Amino acid sequence: MADYDQTCLWLRQQVLPVGYINTNEAYELTTQWMARASMDVKALNRECKCHVALSLWNRVRRLGETPREFFTPIYYIWWTSPKNDAEGFGSLASAEFYTPTKMLLQLAVHDSKFILSKPVVIPDLDSLFQGSGEVFTLPPAAEANVKRGE
């Protein structure tokens, strides 16, 4: 999202009593958006653990913490693998939502096996780098998702 920080700073002025916290709504919105964006939500839920918490924009010190009286309905939703959990960091997919208007603030899938759409085709990709003097190499995971056009 363009102007992500400015948008979130403005949104965090919109507060509700903590009794209105609804993590189920945040989860439902996220899975709907991900499915529409051709992400394999069923596989994510089968292979990973889903977490839903108020976003750090709520002035909380850590995810999972609940403010005392008021909160901003910005939620962070993420999926972790057993490896992520064992290491204590990382996620395979994540999203952030402002639920009153169903505004998607960010969405990311970090493991291509959960992306159902075809890879992006960039015709003549190599010609874009001719004469630049620099060599750019994609990491192996990203390279697997690039299909070079003929």
How would you explain this protein's 3D organization?
- The structure is a single chain.
- The chain has 150 residues and is α+β, with helices and mostly antiparallel strands.
- It is built from five helices and eight strands, in the order H-E-H-H-E-E-E-H-E-E-E-H-E.
- Helix 5 (140-143) links the parallel strand 7 and strand 8.
Topology:
Blueprint: H1 4-11, E1 16-17, H2 23-36, H3 41-47, E2 49-54, E3 70-71, E4 74-80, H4 82-87, E5 93-98, E6 103-109, E7 120-123, H5 140-143, E8 146-149
Parallel strand pairs: 7-8
Antiparallel strand pairs: 1-3, 2-4, 4-5, 5-6
Relative helix content: 25-40%
Structural class: alpha+beta
| Strand and helix order | HEHHEEEHEEEHE
What can be said about the biggest beta sheet? 4 strands, antiparallel
How many extended strands? 8
State the separation between the terminal residues, measured CA to CA: 33 Å
C-alpha Rg (nearest Å) = 19 Å
In the predicted model, the low-confidence regions spanning at least 5 consecutive residues are none
Number of domains: 2
Give the integer mean of the pLDDT values: 87
Shape field: globular
Share of β-strand residues = 25-35%
Instruction: Determine the number of helices (DSSP H or I, runs of at least 4 residues).
Output: 5
